[in-house]
Amino acid sequence: MPGSKLDPIDRQILAELQNDGRMTNVELAKRVGISAPPCLRRVRTLEEQGYIRGYHAEVDARQLGFEVQVFASVGLQSQAEVDLSAFEARCREWPLVRECHMLNGEVDFILKCVAPDLSTFQTFLTEQLTAADNVISVKTSLVIRGAKDEPGVPFDVLEERLNRTA
């Protein structure tokens, strides 16, 4: 099972860093109950192994003037791997697209987009997204408000699962 290769201290390090990526190594070591040097070695190993992909500041989009958030459901004409990959590459080039996920079912992709205003999003929608190669349909949903936006994974669920299989 993924995650079971890590010992409880590694998982606790990941959980603590997910909640507060700015804490010092000394504080992290204290929270997980080990000294600072081995804690730093563990963090570096977790980074090298790809468990930690980066550290980011969580910014408030509205405070920065990005008033519009939209989810766009995109259907493609062809689902050949080369066409799927080409669409994903195109999405990585569009600054307004913040997330791109390929789905199973009626919709091929869901995109999370942000824009400073509706006019900017509409221009992106009509001039870039719907005009992109292989795009056959786009349905959009404007976000009115968000109720939850939790990054990462629920470590308590992982621990529960691991304890059941132990």
List the helices and strands and how they pair.
Elements: H1 8-19, H2 25-32, H3 36-48, E1 68-76, H4 81-93, E2 97-102, E3 109-115, H5 118-129, E4 135-142, H6 155-165
Antiparallel strand pairs: 1-3, 1-4, 2-3
Helix pairs in contact: 1-2, 2-3
Describe this structure in words.
By secondary structure, the protein is an alpha+beta fold. It is built from six helices and four strands, in the order H-H-H-E-H-E-E-H-E-H. It has two domains: 1-58, Orthogonal Bundle (Arc Repressor Mutant, subunit A); 68-142, 2-Layer Sandwich (Alpha-Beta Plaits), CATH 3.30.70.920. A four-stranded antiparallel beta sheet has the order 2-3-1-4. Helix 1 packs across helix 2 (25-32). The mean pLDDT is 94.
What percentage of the residues does DSSP assign to strands (E)?
A: 15-25%
Largest sheet: 4 strands, antiparallel
Residue share in helix: 40-55%
Q: Give the strand order, joined by hyphens, for the main sheet.
A: 2-3-1-4
Which CATH class of the largest domain applies here? Alpha Beta
Question: From the coordinates shown, what is the CATH architecture of the largest domain?
Answer: 2-Layer Sandwich
Number of domains: 2
How much is the radius of gyration in Å? 20 Å
Mean pLDDT: 94
Structural class comes to alpha+beta
Shape label = elongated
Number of helices: 6
Which spans have pLDDT < 50 for at least 5 consecutive residues?
none
Q: Can you tell me the CATH superfamily of the largest domain?
A: Lrp/AsnC effector binding domain/regulation of amino acid metabolism (RAM) domain
In the CATH hierarchy, the third-tier topology of the largest domain is known as Alpha-Beta Plaits
